[in-house]
Amino acid sequence: LVAGTFTLSPWPGNPRPRVARDVKAMTLVNALGFPNPGIDEFMRNLTEGPAPKEKLPPVIASISGRTIEEIRDCYVRVQPKVVGIELNLSSPNTPKLKDLRELSAFSDLAEDLAEVKTKPIYLKIPPYLDEKQFDGVLQIVRCWEDLGFEGVTASNSIPIDDSRMAVGRGGLSGPPLLEHTSAAVRLIRASVARSFEINAVGGIGNPADAAALLRSGATTIQVFTAMVYQGPALVKRLLLDPEIRRLMVERG
Q1: What single string gives the DSSP state of each residue in 4-57?
Q2: Are residues 199 and 151 in contact, defined by beta-carbon separation less than 8 angstroms?
Q3: Which end of the chain is less packed: N or C, by CB atoms within 10 Å?
C-alpha cells in the first residue's frame, strides 16, 4: 500500500475545487497539491490509530518537499516506520518540484538521500509525453540507478488545462495514460539493469493491461483511478488472473 504524498510539515494543498471525474471516460483530474497533515502525523496514524482487525499490508510512504533539506529530513524520519519510500518529484500540481528535477539539483538530492538510506526508495517520475521530453527523464533515472537506488515508479499523471479546477490545471489519470505508461516502461527497461525495479502506474484498468506491462519490463504495477470506478474487487481480479499468476511464478 502506497500512502501519501506526505511532506515534512503540514501542507494545505491547492484551493477547491481540485478533483473532478469524467464517469464516461473513467478518468480523474486532480489539482490536489499534496494536502496532508505532515509526516509526524502520518507516523502517529500508523502506530497509534485504531488496531486493524487484520494485519496491515506492507506500507510504502510517498514523500515530497520544496527543498533538499525538507525531503532529506522527511526521509530520515519516516524510514523506521515503513518498508519503503516513494519520492514524488513529478506532481504536475506542485510547480516548485521542477527545480529539484534539474540534473544538478537532483544529483545533490540523490547523493544526500544515499548517505542516510536504510530502506528501499523509488523515484516517481513524470509521464512519457514525447521522446525529447523523456530523454531528460531518463537522465535522472540513470543518475538514480548509478547511486544504487532500487527503482522508479513510472509514471505520474499528465498535466492538462481544466477549467473545473480552481487553479485552472490538473493531472489527468485513467485509461488514456496506458499508452504513455507502456512507452515509459519500455524505454526505461532498455536503459537500466534488469535488477532495477520499475513500478508501472497509469491507465491500468484490468488484468490484461497489468500483464502486458509486466511482460514489457515492469516489476510491479500500481492502480488507483480504476479502483475509484471499479472498487477494491479490482485488486482481487488482478491477483487471481491466471496470466499474472503465471508471470509471478516465473519470477519466483
Answers
A1: EEE-SS-B--SPSP-EEEETTTTEEEE-----B--HHHHHHHHHHSPPPSSPPP
A2: yes
A3: C
Going by the DSSP 8-state scheme, the letter that residue 95 receives in this structure is T
Residue 78: C-alpha distances to residues 4, 13, 46, 109 (Å): 12, 21, 11, 17
Residue of 62, 64, 90, 91 marked active site: 91
Q: Is 91 a catalytic residue?
A: yes
pTM of the predicted model, to two decimals? Answer: 0.95
Classify 109 in phi/psi space as left (phi over 0), alpha (psi -120 to 50) or beta.
alpha
Please choose, from the candidates 96, 94, 75, the residue with its C-alpha nearest in 3D space to the C-alpha of residue 86: 75
The cell numbers describing 108, all together, are 545533490
Contact between 38 and 190 (Cβ < 8 Å): no
Between CA 213 and CA 219 the distance in angstroms is 9
Q: Which of 138, 10, 1 is nearest to 62 (CA)?
A: 1
Binned average pLDDT, 10 residues per bin, the chain of 252 residues: 96 98 98 97 86 79 96 97 96 83 94 97 97 96 98 97 98 98 98 97 98 97 97 96 96 88
Residue 54 corresponds to which cell in the numbers above? 487484520
Report residue 94 as a C-alpha cell.
506542485
**Is 84 in contact with 119 (CB distance < 8 Å)?**
yes
Q: How far is CA 7 from the centre of its chain?
A: 15
